[in-house]
Amino acid sequence: MTNEAPRKFQILPKIINGGIGGIVGVTCVFPLDLVKTRLQNQQIGPDGEMMYKNIIDAFRKTYKAEGFFGMYRGSAVNIILITPEKAVKLAANDYFRFRLTTADGRLPLINQMFAGALAGVFQIIVTTPMELLKIQMQDAGRIAAQARAKGQLVELPSTTSVIQKLLQERGILGLYRGLEATALRDVTFSALYFPLFAALNALGPRRDDGSGEAVLWCSFLAGLTAGSATACIVTPLDVIKTRLQLINKGMGEEEFSGIMDCAVKTFETEGVRAFFKGGLCRVMVIAPLFAIAQMVYFLGIGERICGIKH
């Protein structure tokens, strides 16, 4: 019995599957993620003005000002880092689910949530710097457009210049600005998402290849549904994290010293609705991202590469 257990879980193909799933997913949804970041970071001006009215307006203005490739601003660092991020998240969840399964083969809900939470803890090692750099690049166009409207010129930063500035001013820890807020969002998300996905994925028909896994369209729909619900729930935490990680604020925009300070100031100046800014856009990003990533994850590409029967 003890000799068989290690053969039941192969970590390398899981990591490969997670990395490939992340790359495919983020490439598909990145323009939506960029719009979500800009909607969440914009604050109401002194005269009540806002640069973007809604998702469509943000898309239209961004495309008009920056073109097609502007919609993928910051995608390079995101795609590079999403590989280990999704690999860690998906593989770690599977690993902890395997380890937390009881001797009689059961996996109680609390164990599923704990496995997801642990996966969230591990992923923030990669997620925090990835999100920090991505947000600076994604929001740079909004700040530049705001400056141009006031007759000023702002040079759009490169990923290299952002990294160099952070390292010079804050050292390696500068890349982990907003770590606590990222952990709060991702641990909560993973603890809720993975048990919900597993429950939904278990409802669909099984493949006829003997793997016992759900058919791919079922995994896609399970990821889409679980991603939508969980993304909606944690949107307020994502708004706080996004605002804390933005280094260069727009003119007249608030600075925040921490999670509570950001939450209080946002509530006082913009009300409850501010915590759901970009919420629809976030759901539109996360739902297909996880649906695609989960579907690709279960394709078994990693197993085929490693010569392991899927």
CATH-scheme architecture:
Alpha/alpha barrel
The structural domain count equals 1
Number of strands: 0
Q: What kind of sheet is the major sheet?
A: none
Uncertain spans: 1-7
Beta fraction of the residues?
Answer: under 5%
Mean pLDDT over the residues: 83
Distance between the termini: 21 Å
Mind telling me the CATH class? Mainly Alpha
SSE order, as H and E?
A: HHHHHHHHHHH
Fourth-level CATH superfamily: Mitochondrial carrier domain
CATH fold group: Mitochondrial carrier fold
Shape: elongated
From the helix content, strand content and strand pairing, which structural class follows?
mainly alpha
Proportion of residues in helical segments: 55-70%
Q: Report Rg.
A: 20 Å
